[in-house]
Write a sequence for this structure.
């Protein structure tokens, strides 16, 4: 059962006499233990809700439109605790975080509910038979699964969990149950690439309901003392990965009409190869995994730039990015300057000293590094930085510095650009409201 924290004023639940402090035991005869149970069972038009108030049980009857929210609020999003990861993966990024960060940064979740609700990837090692049956019964999909390898013995070694190989059987159960699945393979050089990657892709592409497969390189920070030794990818080995993925992508395109397998943008940058054309990414099913992000950003930018008729201001702008995307952002700025020669935009890549190692993506750039590396440089009127550098609150970086800290330290206005390339085009040319203040 789950405890109700508050009831929305004027809601269906309020009118039915449900109160804060009540516990929901069952809905329509089914137990309610978390958010998935609650959402699934309260979607019906007619509800019979068994409540516990103090020591007394009562039943409330509700009639409503299908899927209408009844207006209850709970202590947490999941209505219970997040499931903690049971693995000790050799490539785990959380183990490589610098010391002294917020406690929440070090929490490893592996919760199938967040796979459905927030798009998180899960390893399957936390699933029980009842969890699998519930997912199939409720048609909870897509399920996002971190596979890494389909070799059971290798999966056990990589994830350092003796159940990691056995639970691969759930892939087949989901596929047979008609559950749509997105998968990712985090590649570790000389461990699960090469013939092991081919084996994994051969197996995964055989399933009818696998919707996409993203292959991404593991992140290697400068905080790996005492951890399993993993080599970073270089130009040659990144190219070899791309070649395997291209071969399977062509195969599934021929057999199923879609390019089911995609390489992360980072592989193309390391291999010094051009990002594939937009048609190769279909509808960008793995863009949040860094697959096709640069291509999408480029296409959005160029489309928006074509429609911009004039430059909205005459200010000096510094566009901040990570080292990986530096050449990409430079190409966009060059295109804008070609159309508007009066633009005063310079691109500044920030070296990631906070995480160190081989971390070069913009999403892990922190405010402290921005301040340290821009301080003393020729002052701009505006600093543009991408929203993916910031937490969900849009104010703090991962090192807990804030946008305001940057503005004060550098005495410069900061403007945050959205993920889409169109917003970047508008903001470097002064089209967005507030840019000309």
């Amino acid at each position: 059962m789950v405890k109700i924290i508050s009831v929305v004023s004027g809601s269906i639940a309020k009118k039915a006499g449900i109160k804060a402090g009540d516990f929901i035991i069952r809905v329509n005869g089914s137990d309610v233990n978390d958010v998935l149970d609650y959402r699934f069972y309260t979607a019906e038009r007619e509800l019979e809700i068994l409540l516990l108030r103090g020591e007394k049980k009562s039943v409330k009857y509700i009639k409503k439109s299908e899927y209408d929210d009844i207006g209850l609020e709970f202590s947490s999003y999941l209505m219970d605790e997040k499931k903690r990861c049971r693995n000790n993966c050799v490539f785990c990024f959380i183990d490589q975080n610098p010391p002294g960060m917020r406690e929440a940064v070090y929490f490893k979740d592996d919760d199938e509910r967040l796979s459905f609700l927030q798009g998180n990837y899960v390893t399957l090692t936390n699933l029980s038979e009842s969890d699998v049956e519930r997912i199939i019964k409720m048609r909870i999909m897509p399920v996002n699964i971190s596979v890494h390898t389909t070799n059971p013995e290798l999966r056990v070694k990589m994830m350092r969990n003796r159940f990691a190989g056995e639970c691969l059987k759930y892939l087949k159960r989901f596929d047979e149950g008609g559950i749509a699945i997105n998968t990712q393979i985090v590649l570790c050089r000389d461990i699960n690439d090469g013939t092991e990657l081919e084996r994994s892709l051969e197996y995964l592409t055989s399933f009818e309901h696998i919707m996409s497969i993203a292959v991404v390189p593991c992140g290697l920070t400068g905080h790996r003392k005492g951890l399993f030794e993993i080599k970073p990818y270089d130009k040659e080995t990144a190219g070899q990965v791309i070649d395997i993925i291209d071969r399977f992508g062509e195969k599934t395109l021929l057999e199923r009409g879609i390019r089911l397998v995609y390489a992360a943008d980072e592989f193309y940058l390391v291999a010094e190869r051009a990002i594939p054309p937009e048609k190769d990414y279909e509808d960008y099913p793995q863009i949040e995994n860094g697959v096709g992000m640069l291509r999408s950003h480029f296409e959005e930018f160029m489309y928006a730039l074509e429609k911009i008729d004039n430059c909205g201001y005459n200010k000096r702008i510094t566009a901040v990015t990570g080292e990986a995307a530096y050449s990409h952002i430079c190409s966009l700025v060059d295109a804008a300057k070609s159309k508007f020669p009066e633009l005063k935009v310079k691109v500044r890549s920030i070296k990631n000293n906070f995480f160190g190692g081989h971390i070069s993506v913009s999403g892990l750039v922190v405010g402290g590094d921005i301040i340290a590396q821009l301080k003393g440089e020729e002052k701009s009127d505006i600093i543009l930085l991408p929203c993916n550098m910031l937490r969900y609150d849009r104010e703090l970086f991962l090192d807990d510095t804030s946008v305001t800290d940057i503005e004060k330290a550098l005495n410069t206005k900061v403007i945050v650009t959205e993920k889409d390339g169109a917003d970047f085009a508008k903001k470097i040319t002064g089209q967005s409201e507030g840019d000309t203040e």
Residues 294 and 423 are 14 Å apart (CA to CA).
